[in-house]
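Technical note accompanying the year-one report. For the benefit of new consortium partners, we illustrate the data format agreed upon in the data management plan: each record pairs a sequence with a structure-token string. No post-processing was applied to the example shown here.
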Amino acid sequence: MEKPNRAWSVEARLKFIEFRLYWEGRINRGDLQGHFGISTPQASLDLKAYTEIAPNNLFYDKQRKAYFVTDCFKPVLIIPNAKDYLTQLELISAENSSPFSHTSFIGEKPSFDVTQLPHRVVDAETLRSILRAINENKVLEIQYQSMTRLEPMWRWIAPHALASDGFRWHIRAYCFEKNKFIDFVFGRILAIRAEKNSEIVTSTDLEWNSWLELNIGPNPALSAAQRKGIELDYGMCEGTTSLVIREALQHYVKKQLGLDKIIPEGEVAPKNQHICLISEKRITPS
């Protein structure tokens, strides 16, 4: 089938509509206006155009004043990919800590490279089911392969958030088998077969909703000159710098940085560990 001759801007808005329908299950004119800065009439025309392209993918709910995805939805403009979605979350996180948008200002790029790590698989349909469960407050029955069990088992979970440790994405969820909030690795979910309404109150996930401040400094076993080098490398002020992290994610941060415990002077050889954990405390972020 020959691709219609549409302007790039129109094509981008139509793909945006389909992206929102697939991942979030709904869209309205305000979504288009807010993202693209277009008028209300133009947003209406775009939604009408998408309805003509894929009439079976959406329906309009007059009470909620929005278009919703149908059970027979099939993408016609995008190829759903979990990596693309999760990369956009990473860009949002990067933008929150940067005065610039993620659109590069670089004109002449220097020769550069970025170390590649093994790709951790996230299935698009699994991610979509998890997102809908989070948005609609649902409990899912999943078949999960834990590393503490020889065989996979079915269990009920109530997902409420996503988290990345820099290497892989996790689902933060209440586990009905263990009766507590824990993390689940996307790639170890083998199947999802049922859902029901959740009565879990996500604010009771105290570890997720609590924050720690980790104070980090050079290993005291380093020489004075070496400690100064580490201070400059990590942007330390008066020999320390701090990280503010969710308590639920502290294990990942400490493991990656080798900060599993507070190190007394001289306990760890400096050649093996350049930085150490000086102190940690629970805080309320500003």
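Partners are asked to follow this layout when depositing records. The mean pLDDT is 89.
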